[in-house]
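job 3f2a | input accepted
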Amino acid sequence: MTLDYEKKHKIANECWKRGTEALAKQSWDYAIQMFQDSVKMVPDNLVYRQSYHGAIRRKYGDNKTGARMSGARLMTTRARIKKARMQSKWDAVDEEATKGLAVNPWDPQLNADVAEAGVNLGYGDVAVWFYERALEGDADNMAYNRQLALLLEERGNYSRALQCWRKIQQLDPLNSEARSKMTQLDTKTMMESGYEEAKSTREVQTAASAYDEIRAGRRASGEMAADGPGQSIEADLERAIRKNPADKENYLKLADHYKREKQLEKSAEIYKKALEVSGNDPNIREQLEDLELELLKHNLDLAKEAAKANPEDETSQKNRTALTRELNQREIEVFSSRVERYPRDSRLKLELGRRFMRVAKWSQAIPLLQQASNDNRLEGEVLVALGECFLQDKKESLARRQFERVLPKLSEHDQPELVKKTRYYLGRLAEEAGDNATAEEHYNEILALDYEYRDVLKRLERLQGGGETAGG
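job 3f2a | predicted structure (472 res):
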């Protein structure tokens, strides 16, 4: 008996929930089986596939190679995929490649096989995501870059498509298709950028403010008792949602409208509905997370103002402390999830490392910062943060090494705060080691930039006066 649409989705969601619970208990095989069942039921749901993929990676400890002797174990699978492809049986290609990922989820060809099947079966989001996974393992594969570029262009993501074509031209400077596409996409990207800028900075603001003024005046005069079509963005979007409750785009537009109007609580509620309708789309989940963080920051700002206005009020002080702790913990959860989803994003690793530093979890911050230090754009910030971690973790020699390593890379003009902080720590470390000459040198350099920086003047005077050094 063939299950209807609703039953399939209901069963798939139940399997996904069980898989998520098993994952939390590190029951890898059961979690993988549940996620695989979800994929079978609803193969176009990207979240189910991402969960399946992620569970397998965790099972193998993110070793990037999968099961032992995976190459030999996958020979039969590859033969089946080849046969199914020749017969254009894309469901079979998808099924076999998905099974193969359970042996090695990092295999570029298997990920590309799932993506190719997705293209032919109409699973566009799935195809994009799996071509991206294929390129993580084989970044110079021109076929993968080409297919991803075409998919991205279809979706209007011209800037990312352009990156793929640039990669192809880098690999093959004589590739005429790449040159042609780059010219086309450069134009589209500029047009898109110009349109969005004009729309956001001029047209939308002017139209919205005029619209609001007219609408407010009409309401005040009693001329407009109720919103009709075209009279209210909010009412129009609510009508569109009632007409087609399965269309996530209308929810997203309404949530964005509330966000622009600074009605953050309302916006969060609509994002939650959009997330539910979308089947837990990870992109929508990230938008909701960003909004929730914005809400927490707003509440924390209010709590800080209340605590500042009433310094003797114990309740106000406790509220500020509790909200600070809550915001940091929520940011750790969000950034941890995103680091897993975007393992190459060094900025995310730096931000997560900083959050761990705020709660004195140095051993968790250090490896994240070490990974982020490979990004030349962040090197200065990261190395200073690493030095601070080592210092707080009582590893003074490692701290000194980091600070000495980063100082020549910092610019007094562009990064004065980092320069002052680095020299301050080096001066303190030199003091503790009894190297007063080096400490004086660093303190003098700081005072040349900022005469009132921390307690530097006091420390320098004590050193030069031959008295006791300043305390900790």
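job 3f2a | The two ends are 76 Å apart (CA to CA).
job 3f2a | closed
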